[in-house]
Amino acid sequence: MNRNFFVITLVTALVVGLCLAAAHAANQGPDRIDIFGGQSGNVPFPHAQHQDRIKECNVCHSVFPQETAAIEKMKEAGMLKPKKVMNLQCIKCHKEDRKMGKPHGPVTCKTCHVK
Ligand code: HEC
Ligand code: HEC
Ligand code: HEC
């Protein structure tokens, strides 16, 4: 095989690989997500706004993966209790912020769940 051809092929493969890796790391998910909320109604969630403020993805994603409908799937599989994310993440953080007098997210049922 021609040596130049070999080098070019190798470099191309490397560049394509790096691009794919960058695209993967850059998957921020949608700006807004409609979270399944059972009989109380779904919860419109401003994802991008939280990412801007919180920075550390794992504040939330340590409990569920960065995948579409992850919470609903885990609840269906019995791997996550209903209302656990709601109580231990959403409401907990909003109440802590409220207690400290900072701008905070909603803490009452109907300001999160929309029918
Ligand atoms: C305040 C909590 C919170 C933070 C912080 C957060 N996420 Fe999410 N993310 C969620 C929720 C809730 C969902 C929806 C899960 C579901 O639909 O069951 C989600 C879903 C996603 C999804 C899948 C979206 C889809 O529907 O296809 C991706 C990708 C994602 N997040 C990436 C990130 C990244 C990257 C960061 C950090 C820069 C981040 N998230 C920070 C709460 C958060
Ligand atoms: C900060 C937003 C927020 C508030 C406030 C809130 N919820 Fe939720 N709720 C959610 C989210 C997000 C989910 C889905 C994740 C989970 O099950 O933890 C959920 C899930 C639920 C579920 C389980 C649904 C299912 O079938 O899996 C019930 C029931 C529920 N909420 C009732 C309530 C009631 C009643 C209140 C008021 C006392 C309330 N919620 C307040 C965000 C909220
Ligand atoms: C670690 C802290 C934290 C967590 C966890 C968190 N939030 Fe928030 N949330 C905030 C802050 C801060 C605001 C912005 C308050 C403001 O600027 O008015 C906010 C605002 C909101 C708002 C109002 C957005 C608007 O348009 O004003 C909604 C709805 C909301 N959060 C839902 C949720 C839901 C649902 C979850 C759980 C999946 C969640 N939040 C988890 C900190 C958090």
Characterise the protein shown here.
By secondary structure, the protein is mostly helical. It folds into two domains: 1-28; 31-112, Alpha-Beta Complex (Cytochrome C3), CATH 3.90.10. It is built from six helices and two strands. The chain has helices spanning 3-25, 47-54, 58-61, 70-76, 84-99, 109-112; strands at 32-35, 43-46. Strands 1-2 form a two-stranded antiparallel sheet. It binds heme C (3 copies). One heme C (HEC) is lined by residues 27-30, 33, 35, 45, 47, 50-51, 54, 57, 59-61, 66-72.
Observed structural traits:
mainly alpha; Cytochrome C3; 2 strands; 2 domains; binds heme C; about 120 residues
Helix and strand layout, with pairings?
Blueprint: H1 3-25, E1 32-35, E2 43-46, H2 47-54, H3 58-61, H4 70-76, H5 84-99, H6 109-112
Antiparallel strand pairs: 1-2
This protein binds heme C (HEC) (3 copies).
One heme C (HEC) binds near residues 45 and 47.
Element-by-element helix/strand order = HEEHHHHH
Strand arrangement, major sheet:
1-2
How many distinct folded domains? 2
From the helix content, strand content and strand pairing, which structural class follows? mainly alpha
Under CATH, the homologous superfamily of the largest domain reads Cytochrome C3
Number of strands: 2
Shape: elongated
Overall helicity: 40-55%
Q: DSSP helix count?
A: 6
Q: Beta fraction of the residues?
A: 5-15%
CATH fold label of the largest domain? Cytochrome C3
Task: Write down the oligomeric state.
Answer: single chain
Q: How far apart are the first and last residues' alpha carbons, in Å?
A: 66 Å
